[in-house]
Design a protein that fits this description.
Blueprint lengths: L15 H25 L7 H8 L3 H22 L5 H22 L2 H5 L2 H32 L5
Helix pairs in contact: 1-3, 3-4, 3-6, 4-6
Length: 153
């Protein structure tokens, strides 16, 4: 049986920042998921070059983009669940991002199509946040392992 602190509503010993980081990460990645769905369903107004960019995206690049988005969403939810599987989700997302951004920037001229320096800056922000979430989830896994160690015997 899991005990819950009546004052905080949290499992005793769970750092407060787990909830903040998990909630902010989930909101951030929900934005990425919304964008992904809106592009896939063509619910966004897009210029002809941007529409062509997505229409001509090779399957491997689209698969990488899909994994990058949904692995990040899963990782964010798993932070809230304090799961050891959050870090591997973010790592898979980072690997998929590398493939997706390689296609978008190096092979498909996506930066020029999507807005030049602004696109590159936002891409860098996405990568920095994803690395931060991976490192946080890795720390969280270590914290959870240390808490579980005395009960393992």
């Amino acid at each position: 049986m899991m005990l819950i602190d009546e004052d905080t509503g949290m499992k005793p010993g769970t750092p407060w920042h787990v909830w903040w980081v998990g909630a902010l990460a989930t909101l951030w990645n929900a934005g990425g998921a919304w964008n992904y769905i809106a592009v896939q369903t063509r619910a966004l107004a897009m210029s002809e070059p941007v529409r062509t960019f997505y229409d001509e995206m090779p399957l491997w690049a689209e698969a990488a983009w899909t994994v990058a988005i949904w692995a990040s969403v899963a990782g964010s939810v798993l932070i809230l669940a304090r799961s050891r599987y959050a870090a591997p989700c973010f790592l898979a997302s980072l690997a998929a991002m590398a493939i997706s951004f390689f296609h978008n920037i190096a092979l498909a001229n996506g930066a020029e199509i999507a807005g030049g320096a602004g696109y590159l800056a936002f891409t860098a922000l996405i990568v920095v946040i994803a690395i931060g979430l991976y490192l946080y989830a890795r720390w969280l896994k270590g914290w959870a392992d240390k808490r579980a160690a005395p009960n393992a015997a």
